[in-house]
Model the fold of this input.
Amino acid sequence: MVRLLAAEAHEVAVPAMIDWAWLIVAVPYVSFFLIVFLGKRLPGRGHEIGIGATAISFLLSVPVFASTISALGTEGFHGFEKSIRWLQFGDNEFLELGMKIDGLTVVMLIVVTFVSLMVHIYSTGYMHGDRRYTWFYAALSLFTGSMLNLVMANNLLQLLVGWEGVGICSYFLIGHWFEERENSNAAIKAFITTRIGDVGFLFGVFVLFFAAGTFNITEITEAVEGGTIAAGVLTAAAVLLFFGAIGKSAQVPLHVWLPDAMAGPTPVSALIHAATMVVAGVYLVARMFTVFHASPVALDEVAIIGSITMLIAALLALVQDDIKRVLAYSTISQLAYMIAGLGISAYTGAVFHIWTHAWFKALLFLGAGSVIHAVHSNNMSDMGGLKDKMPITYRTYMVGGFALAGFFPLAGFFSKDEIILGAFMQARAGHGVGWFVFITMIVTAFLTACYVARMLALTFFGKPKYDTGHVHPHESPGSMTTPLILLAILSVVGGWVGLPGEPNLFANWIHFEALEHHPFNLAIAIFSMIVAIAGFLTGWTIFRGGRLKIDIVRSPFGWFYRLLENKYYLDDIYMSAIVRPIRDQISKFAYWTNQNVLDGLVNVTGMATAALGRGAYDKIDQPLIDGAVNGVAFGADVAGRGLKFWQSGNIQGYAGVLFVGIVAFVLAFIFIRI
Amino acid sequence: MHQYVFVVIGVLMAIAAVRLVTTKNVVHGALYLLMVLAGAAAIFILLLAEFVGWVQVLLYIGAVVVLLLFGLMLTRAPIGRTALDNQSRALAALVAGAIFAMTSMVLVRAFDGQMIDFSQTLTVRTLGGVLFTKYVLPFEVVSVLLLAALVGAVVLAKRDE
Amino acid sequence: MMPVTWVLLLSAFLFSVGVYGVLARRNAVLILMSIEVMLTAVNINLVAFNAMLKDVEMMGQIFALFIITIAAAEIGVGLAIVILIYRNRTTVTVDEVSLMKW
Done:
């Protein structure tokens, strides 16, 4: 049965807080049930439970964070781990329910709980009067709980549970307004596309289980470091695990679901993009980094997929009209930064980018929501000139945009710089993929600043393009602007934990033992800053006038522009190469088989049976059996006439008689025998 | 300790079961069924049948209840006392009461005084061993039965062309 | 240690409630649910006996597993039948479906 394992004995005393850290995960789960059952009866229709639970989770995360990072300085300390065994198969085979708390976990805890809290508060304004308001909050709670479970899990099976929970909640929330066909299609697309990656993940878990004999992440890590697992197996496991990350973190070629996922309510997009769901893929690679580190092939694959994705997505972000789609492609591109960062072993930089990206991307999405709320349209061709109408949204959005572009001293600068530095170091060390990644990152940084400039120019500057007669944009209510301001502050100061130092603060929290940490490099920092400014100025010059598109459709580059506008035709390729053939061809084949093979068999059997039957009829049936049958039939006819009234056709009557009969029989048995 | 847990779960299950057969809303009925089945799973775990308990959770709660909910949705079940219950409720209660009186009498007579010992250990390893050696034939037969049910369900529910 | 009769009484009660449901409900899906309750009651008995007898061969648990499997098959086919009836007659009220009589 259930057995308590002692907390792993490190040289550090376990703070009392750690014993209660499981509450961080439990509270949102409990909140989900409370909202489902009680939410509708409360004055706020459930949001008070959701906000309260998320706030408790956040407030619990802070001391856990503090006590963990203060312990991290100790030599040989990696983290706390506690677990119970909930299913015992044999002496050594069992399943665990537990938590692993180290630097990576606590950083994610803060990110997830804080962004979730902001989204909860923001949604009271944004979703006000929605017809499924209570359910919305219930799903948000479940979403947060699943993500926290994923982040805290000490074994892969539990991580998988959180992973799938996140998947199903994203399905609920993307399809929140499922009455419109388009939205429910987007939800299904998101679910199925990520599911394709999940299959790989599941098999990766199996491979690791059979190789290491355990689901426990710490034990797997030790087994990998101890060299007990063959290199080929590790490569297979890493590639399979990365499949899951490709799906969840929307990397090429499974990135197609994320832009469509914009069909969900905007706060949900903020949650999906900043803290939960898509970050899960990056987290998985970071969590299982030992496995990747042990397999150079897998690492190169990660780096190359990341590089391709960041470039492709940044180009797509340049041509979108829908402001949320710009941000969606931007997320794909920034996630690819993290993935590629992990691929070139810039471990600290990649996790640091999760941290900073969460703040400014949540800010940008919530800001975009505020704008959409004001002009009742997602399209930037309906915006423009909102600078003075929405001063708070405008200022915070500028902060978010600059942080995304990577301007000093905002959050995005520090993390991006650290990844680029890592790529440069890798390249200089003579690693071929390093150069590729480094150059793509520089180009993407340029493009990022460029589309940020375009987005800002089209949304807040220039002349109003909305229908000024009908739409009167005004600043959003306090419940929406307060989260914006808080997130804007974090988008500024959030990066300062990575200020140059030896080693810097963030690297102290999160680092991978086997990798050396590259010290701050002024030249690279100035270089990436110049690239960002150049990109921003280019974008600003082109789009300042409020032009939505560049007039290159007719130019020699027209084909490229059309390629982008159609998202590289990937959706069409998937539709015509995978969905349609499966749907049409297989059913056609099945029909053909049915008609020709099965029917033929049936016909032959039928004919044989008929021939046999005819023989039997003439020789046996007529003379012998008929006589007997006629006699029996006569008897049955008489009996049937009498008994037919029992046959009421009411099956419940039959059942009643059956039960009464049983009782009668048993009683008879007892009293006759005894 | 075990007794108290059992009594609490048992009372909850009994209440849920009664509500299941009396509720006027079919979807609530499904939720009460969920409670009964979850309670049963808890009792299995309590009675040292962990594996059976988790199978119960996976299969009943995960699959059967969802299937039943699908059934309710697809058949647009109505709401209300007259739509859900028939006229012979009193008769049904009488029969059910008779069954209860009879079974409890027989069971108490037969097993009074016997105890369940919670300190023994029954591992899933032995269960798996026995299932795949001594009971391997019934196991295979059940798989064929499942296949037949699968085919049967598809054939029945398929729309005729 | 706990008297086995407690468990047996609970399962007897659940079984009778299931019987009531089968007899008193008109909706076919609700009847199927009641049948599930009856089957669960039987399983509780089997598992309780297994624990009481300290059976090392775990016959009770294995039987319970088989019953769960068969219940799954039963519910699949049962629901298919219910849906077929609904499609043909737009009702799943069992006392309206009484074609099988004289």
Summary: Confidence is low (pLDDT under 50) at residues 1-10 of chain A. Chain A has 25 helices and three strands.
